[in-house]
Amino acid sequence: MSKTALIVGAGGIVGGNLAERLLDRGWTVHGLARRPSFRRPEIRAVAADLSKPEETAAALKGLDVSHVFISAWSRQATEAENCRVNGEMVRNLLDAVGSAPNLQHVALVTGLKHYLGPFEAYGAGAVPETPFREEQGRQPVENFYYAQEDELFAASERRGFTWSVHRPHTIIGYAVGNAMNMGVTLAVYATLCRETGLPFAFPGSPTQWSGLTDMTDARLLARHLEWAATSDAGRNEDFNVVNGDVFRWNWLWPRLTARFGIEAAPYPGEARPLERAMAEAGPIWSGIAERHGLAEADLTRLASWWHTDADLGRPMEAVTDMTKSRKAGFLDYQGTPDSFFDLFARLKEDRIIPG
Q1: CDD domains, per this entry (predicted)?
Q2: What is the pLDDT of residue 99?
């Protein structure tokens, strides 16, 4: 049977890169979103709000797919609401598509907040020792990742398909209009500094500045998702997924700035969040976009200051172990500096940032 995928969130940083991967390898790809708008015209759009079960069921009625990839969530005011809303969304989706005659596998993308805790209790509990390993299990706090997993596991029991859970670290990759996108956010930040003369200073915590960390390239995550969904070793397993290298921001930061022709400012010794520093940057970006003929003048569609602040402001180390994937046969590697450099080149090519 030909491989037919349904990607939930096919316009985002994870889903968009996964769609490109699968299309290039001969898959048929359906993309689900509330307001579908995809980079690749070959993606077959499915419009649905997963919080509405009747609408979801109607949109997916008769759709026969072999694989489902869930890479979207809805941010709520509290973690209790995150759990309720995002758990229901996964349930509504799998109730609607779970009886597809040829459904084989459902993959869920979560992240390292599985170990670190949710945003409202970030690092507040007994964070496991690093490097994070799948065997360390769940934290004793509310976490919408756990709610999503539980819905996935229950549907798998009912319907008989296999599953996989994928836990990337901070994802670097091409996407516009994405709420969790450090790579594009830092490219915009560097551009604003270069165009205005502001110092390009690392905004995060001393721990992140000098400690070891790692990241996940969206293209590598796409390969990992396809591998787990089509490999016996990937069935009914949870996996961390990162590039495979480690680095310190005090080493990487000046290398990023060099790509923009500016010098890195001295580290201020404390976190200085971008969400506050860039609060008035919208009109400045609009002017930059007009001068350079850029494709996107709306800063809110490019920069996710709050999410970058959350990642770079962590007071604890975050390093991830990939042994489980390696032993199961996934051996891909991606150098993190190249993840950034490749992204910057594509953003320039597509006129998202100036050349």
Answers
A1: 5beta-POR_like_SDR_a
A2: 87
